Amino acid sequence: MSDYLRPRAPGASVFFTVALAGRGSDLLVREVGRLRAAVAVTRAERPFGIDAWVVMPDHVHAVWTLPEGDADYSVRWGAIKARFTMSLRRAERRPGFSPAPLPTELPVVRSGRYAGLKPGLRVGKREQAIWQRRFWEHHIRDEADFAAHVRYCWINPVKHGFVERAVDWPYSSIHRDIRSGRVEPEWCGEVPEGAFGE
Question: pLDDT value at position 111?
């Protein structure tokens, strides 16, 4: 099997799915403040536009637009993941100089090239198994594709059964878009027929 090469299109709009290693966790909504802080610091260092974002308990969906001439979203995601992890580690430290203990039970990779393996910690790199090492991305092709992926972010909490209306999920950019007037009125209430592409 060949190694996956990510496309590199400077200034592109890209849809992402980024997941925790332990699916079924609620870590991201419990620690949403730490995630927001990690994103803010990363954006200050390496700007990018956030067109849509939804934080689910164990994964994130986002649509970003990169600056003209810049295609390096992998570095940005790496920085966000590392900052979030470091913030958790600092919060878990015991009094004194003792670092927090490393996890003893590691998640098993459920699908893909490394299915069935425990990714383990690369202790020499001081990794913690909080995030999946990889993420999924899709380069937006046109305006319709852009709109579909922004809507996907908004309706994901409904799709997963957490809320009945997209506007009821607190960890979504839909609230920003309602305030700015960018959201079509029907998205403030029930999810329209066919919104899931069915």
Answer: 60
List of domains in the chain: 13-92+105-184 (3.30.70.1290)
| pLDDT given at position 107 | 57
Tokens found for residue 53 = 């974002």
The whole-angstrom separation of Cα 69 and Cα 143 is: 20
Q: Catalytic site residue 171?
A: yes
Residue 130 token pair: 């909080």
Provide the terminal-to-terminal Cα distance of the chain, rounded to the nearest Å. Answer: 33
32-45 and 73-92 helices, crossing angle to 10°:
140
Residue with tokens 């990510």: 6
- pTM, two decimals, is 0.76
Exposure class string for 63-93: b at 16+ Cβ within 10 A, else e = bbebeeebbebeebbebbbebbbebeeeeee
Mean pLDDT by 10 residues, the chain (198 residues): 58 93 92 96 96 96 94 93 92 61 56 53 56 91 94 95 94 91 64 46
Helices (H), 52-111: 73-92
The DSSP-derived string for 13-65 is: EEEEEEEBSSTT--HHHHTHHHHHHHHHHHHHHS--EEEEEEE-SSEEEEEEE
- Residue 105 identity: E
